[in-house]
Design a protein that fits this description.
Layout (H helix, E strand, L loop, with lengths): L1 H14 L28 H14 L2 H6 L3 H6 L2 H14 L2 E14 L2 E12 L4 E3 L4 E8 L2 E4 L15 E7 L6 E2 L5 E13 L7 H12 L3 H7 L9 E7 H5 L2 H5 L4 E10 L7 H4 L1 E4 L5 H6 L7 E5 H5 L1 H4 L4 E7 L5 E8 L6 E4 L3 H11 L4 E6 L6 E7 L17 H5 L9 H4 L9 H11 L7 E4 L2 E2 L8 E2 L1 H4 L6 E4 H7 L2 H14 L3 H8 L21 H7 L6 H8 L9 H13 L2 E3 L4 E5 L7 E2 L4 E4 L4 H14 L2 E4 L2 E4 L13 E8 L10 E8 L10 E6 L5 H18 L9 E3 L2 E2 L21
Parallel strand pairs: 7-15
Antiparallel strand pairs: 1-2, 2-3, 2-4, 4-5, 6-13, 7-8, 8-9, 8-10, 11-12, 13-14, 15-23, 16-17, 16-30, 18-21, 19-20, 22-25, 23-24, 26-27, 28-29, 29-30, 31-32
Helix pairs in contact: 6-7, 14-26, 17-20, 17-21, 19-25, 20-23
Length: 753
């Protein structure tokens, strides 16, 4: 603006300057009056600033709209956009920063000089060495940018282009707490069967069973009814394991082996819902990953710890950003950087305990969570049905089975331990009893007479105890302490009514204080909230007021109440340790190759049960009695799970739960058992655990035996007690049974404490 004013002043001074007169000189002409009918444009700086601002936003259409008509005629919007995007993608640009340095205008032409800095994911910041000139021209009533590709970077003038030569470190491994690989970069062998080529079925089944740890009848069932020339995937094994028995395997007719360089998950996936899986970057996320420094053809973590720990497991790529001519000739190196090493992740998971939990569920849908009560570490997290994460590698011939996983109506990719929200049934009575005692309205020795029926809301709202359905006598006169042990529903309905009348918020608030409802914040895997309903929740979600019947149902873990198995496991963990609520954790450490850990787990307390030590000891003793038989007045009575734990030398406490499924009216209920051990063995720290089995029956009949199975394997190294429904370990009783040659012995006495 100052330059234009100076120019006008000089013109005016010249026009109005004094003229010398001589006798021979004609009289001067009148001084001309300068008038400007059309003002000279004065907003070229605004156009330049708008152009650069649009560039910083990635608004290429906005930039293109500011080009001069001649520039728009020379390049289409599509090509203009592609040119900028290709540069940004090649350099792994995360953002661009520009700054106007100076400007100069003369008539309908102007120039603006500016600096540009590209922030990139791989090679750091890239800046032009000298200011870049932006020519502008005034035409058709506006200023427009006379664009050339050298305005992106001078080195790109004339059509030069960029190519990044990536150097990416190998993906780091995931280990269990004892150093066993759960996800490794290695050679593996995909194993399958072509039925029509089988020559010795017994030998083939025996070899695959031994190699993969699968039952022979299971393998046989995979190809039952298949066409002779079909390829039937069976599983994967490490190349080392196959090599050690290669000569024998190679001679088996019908066995097909394919070696692959892959992300290998042993055992068909140990804790797959925790570890997760890797695969190629989804099409819709390519731009995002390229901004993060990926070339675009890598396999990345898409679930579980593989996804959560991507920045550690993948490391950081290095690269050399080169300039090439339109003919493909190397011009120069623009920038370069060195890769940063990947870091391995060690989980809190115990491989052997995890496998025991997965096997304990068998073919049942459900979840098991095992925690260390003293730290909040998750030692096992099993969800069933499960899946084989090896199938997500497209180079694996067995990946032909992936559509079966993706389309399975039972949704095996869902982590039921953290994403499944279920009515907790009677395991919720732990929180109800805590709220009752904390309120001061109830005391451990308060008596109540249970007749098997409950009618405190009148004759039109009569509820019956579980004892009625199984033809057992009512509990009679019992204390609150015993009511938890025998799971007396009428007593707890009475508690729900009484607390509601005192203050409708007592029970919901008490349940939340026990860690139920909101997600636990575990962070390393996907997690859903549960539901602890109250007046506000019901009005918002149902559009109805909170009524006494809601509180009565809630007291026994029914109605609108939903919890995840992880929430229940954390609740009993807090009961076991004296009241501390820990944030559950799955990651023990993160370490670079050959270096000290960059992260080491430390227990994180996030709350404390509001229950006094005296009242908490009452709850603990009541849960202890759930698992044993007691003599009262010469009469033996037992807790709801004492038969399931009969003869077990490991002392433990727990609570059964049988929860009606609102999603399956009239169907079988969910079975729960949650508790903790009390062995006090320095070589085997005590554990807390929650077991859920979907739509199967009573908690004492199904979940409690599964709890026992996991405890036996943890403390004794193998199971000693068959399930009521088993004929041998891992084999469901049936008229025709398939023997399991690799199952542990069915007889024997477990070690004494």
């Amino acid at each position: 603006m100052k330059r234009r004013l100076l120019t006008l002043m000089l013109l005016f001074a010249t026009a109005c300057g004094t003229t010398s007169l001589t006798p021979n000189t004609a009289l001067p002409l009148p001084t001309p009056q300068i008038t400007i009918s059309t003002p000279l444009p004065s907003d070229h700086e605004g156009t330049a600033a708008a152009f650069l601002s649009a560039w910083q936003r990635g608004d290429y259409a906005g930039m293109y709209a500011l080009l001069s008509p001649l520039s728009q005629a020379a390049i289409s919007l599509e090509d203009f956009t592609k040119r900028h995007q290709s540069v940004a993608e090649a350099m792994t640009q995360t953002s661009v920063e520009t700054k106007v340095l100076s400007s100069l205008a003369q008539g309908t032409d102007a120039q603006v000089s500016y600096s540009v800095t590209f922030h990139t994911a791989i090679v750091g910041d890239i800046s032009a060495l000298q200011p870049i000139i932006m020519p502008l021209v005034y035409a058709n009533g506006r200023w427009g940018v006379s664009w050339s590709d050298g305005m992106i970077l001078p080195q790109l003038a004339g059509g030069n282009y960029l190519v990044m030569d990536f150097t990416r470190p190998a993906r780091a491994n995931i280990y269990d707490r004892n150093g066993h690989g759960l996800a490794t970069e290695t050679n593996a062998v995909a194993l399958g069967i072509v039925p029509g080529k089988i020559t010795d079925e017994a030998a083939l089944l025996g070899a695959l069973s031994s190699l993969l740890g699968l039952r022979r009848d299971y393998i046989q069932g995979l190809y039952f009814g298949a066409q002779p020339d079909w390829y039937i995937p069976v599983g994967e094994a490490s190349a080392d394991d196959v090599q050690s028995r290669l000569s024998y395997l190679s001679g088996l007719g019908g066995l097909q082996m394919s070696t692959i360089k892959t992300r290998y998950y042993p055992g068909g996936g140990i804790a797959p819902h925790v570890v997760g899986y890797t695969s190629f970057i989804p099409e819709g996320q390519l731009a995002e990953y390229r901004q993060r420094g990926y070339r675009g053809d890598e396999r990345v973590g898409l679930a579980g710890v593989e996804a959560w720990g991507e920045q550690y497991l993948a490391g950081k790529a290095g690269g050399t950003l080169n300039i090439y001519s339109p003919a493909g000739a190397f011009v120069a190196t623009l920038a370069q950087s060195q890769p940063q090493p990947s870091q391995s992740i060690t989980l809190t998971i115990d491989r052997d305990l995890q496998q025991a939990a997965q096997q304990a569920l068998g073919d049942m849908r459900g979840a098991i969570v095992v925690m260390n009560p003293s730290t909040g570490e998750v030692l096992a997290m099993a969800s069933n049905p499960t899946y084989d994460p090896n199938l997500f590698d497209p180079t694996n011939p067995n990946s032909v089975n992936l559509p079966n996983v993706l389309n399975d109506p039972h949704r095996p990719l869902i982590n039921r331990a953290t994403q499944g929200a279920y009515p907790p049934g009677s395991v919720f009575k732990i929180a109800t009893m805590g709220a009752a005692l904390d309120s001061g309205i109830f005391h451990a020795g308060d008596h109540y007479t249970c007749t098997g029926y409950w009618s405190e809301l009148g004759p039109n709202f009569v509820k019956k105890d579980w004892t009625v359905d199984v033809d057992l006598p009512p509990h009679g006169d019992i204390t609150l302490a015993k009511a938890l042990t025998v799971s007396c529903n009428p007593y707890f309905w009475h508690i729900g009514l009484t607390l509601y009348n005192a203050d409708p918020g007592i029970l919901p608030n008490g349940a939340r204080a026990y860690g139920l409802g909101p997600a636990t914040g575990i962070g390393q895997v996907a997690e859903a909230d549960g539901v602890i309903p109250d007046a506000e929740w019901k009005q918002k979600n149902i559009g109805e007021p909170w009524v006494v019947g809601d509180a009565v149902n809630m007291a026994t873990g029914q109605g609108f109440v939903l919890t995840t198995p992880l929430q229940i496991a954390r609740m009993v963990t807090a009961v076991a340790n004296g009241g501390t609520l820990y944030r559950p954790n799955l990651v023990l450490s993160i370490s670079p190759p050959g270096g000290p850990p960059t992260y080491t787990f430390k227990p994180e307390e996030v709350g404390h049960l509001p229950t006094s030590p005296e009242n908490l000891s009452v709850i603990q003793e009541s849960m202890r009695n759930v698992t044993r038989r007691m003599a009262e007045g010469g009469v033996y009575t037992g807790g709801t799970a004492w038969t399931a734990f009969k003869g077990l030398s490991i002392p433990l406490a727990g609570k059964t739960g049988t929860a009606e499924d609102p999603g399956a009216p009239g169907g079988l209920p969910h079975a729960w058992f949650a508790g903790y051990t009390l062995k006090n063995d320095p070589n085997h720290p005590d554990i807390a655990m929650a077991v859920l089995v979907e739509n199967i029956g009573e908690g004492a009949e199904f979940a409690a035996p599964i709890f026992r199975r996991v405890v036996e394997v943890y403390f004794f190294g193998r199971p000693y007690t068959l399930y009521p429904w088993e004929s041998s370990f891992g084999v469901t009783a049936a008229p025709t049974e398939t023997p399991n040659p690799f199952a542990p012995a069915e007889t024997g006495t477990p070690p004494s404490p």
